[in-house]
Amino acid sequence: MTIWDQLPRPFFVLAPMDDVTDTVFRQIIASVAPPDLYFTEFVNVDGLQSPGRKKLMPKLKLAQTDRPIIAQLWGKTPENFYKTAKELKDMGYAGVDLNMGCPVKTVIRNGCCVALIKNRAAALEIIRATQEGAGELPVSVKTRLGFNEIDLTWHELLLSQKLNALTIHGRTAKQLSNAPANWEMIGEVRALRDRLCPDTKIIGNGDAMTRQQGEALAGDHKLDGIMIGRGIFHDPFVFSLSSPWLGYSRRQRLDLYKSHIELFMTTWPNSERKLHTLNKFCKIYINGFDGAKELREQLMNCTTASELLERLLLDI
Description:
With 316 residues, the protein is an alpha/beta fold. It has helices spanning 3-6, 23-32, 45-48, 53-56, 78-88, 105-109, 120-134, 152-159, 183-196, 211-221, 231-234, 250-267, 275-279, 282-285, 292-300, 305-313, and strands at 11-14, 37-44, 69-74, 95-100, 139-144, 165-169, 201-205, 225-228. It contains 16 helices and 8 strands. It has an 8-stranded parallel beta barrel, surrounded by 4 helices. The longest helix has 18 residues, at 250-267.
């Protein structure tokens, strides 16, 4: 039995987001309203298995509270997926996920992530190498509905690989985030799953902004789980049954940001993470009260985490 079999139905997952879902942010979310499952940022296996490994290892840093967690990998070389997957169990991970959905142009030009929809032989090599390296760790894939258009033959191929889970972002690569997520087609992938590989869990992703909305979508389309990404920027309590965020006072929001900054400073004392990765969270906390915009502008001008903390303390 894997972690995917132990989750409630529907389960809720914090989406992998680069420069966002590091261990610090995951611990903050764990302290207020934890999801059922966490994902890391996406980590490049080719970089991990190279002299650049040291720079990437902070992306795989874990704490006791941000678990159970899946490591999300991307890259080009099957052998590096094999080697990395083999390492992950000893690091405390509950599974391995393959990023076959990121639509960033530079990534596509390199033949990675969502570009694998157009290079299915390479996709299969990567999946099989990862499964071999992962051993008893479950292997899953996160992808989109297609490249330029919806293409369910891609999902048929993935489902034939006996994946433990398959996350579908309800847009094509061409659409980026510029169209509403197509949950009807996510439901079609779930129907394919029912016929081809009933044991694979199907997770829907795209535009779910509250737990209640996610529960309704899971029910309507008979999904096993819901993954939420951008919704966390609107409400750190998005995974709670009843979010208190709208009623949070200015002081409560500043205190939560203070906790985030302090944890960032203790977790990365040697500047393993750049300040811009902390600045991304400013709008989450410094929002919804008079003077928020002005304060946010002042905080974003800080050049070190300690300066940021000092400036914030002036307003607490």
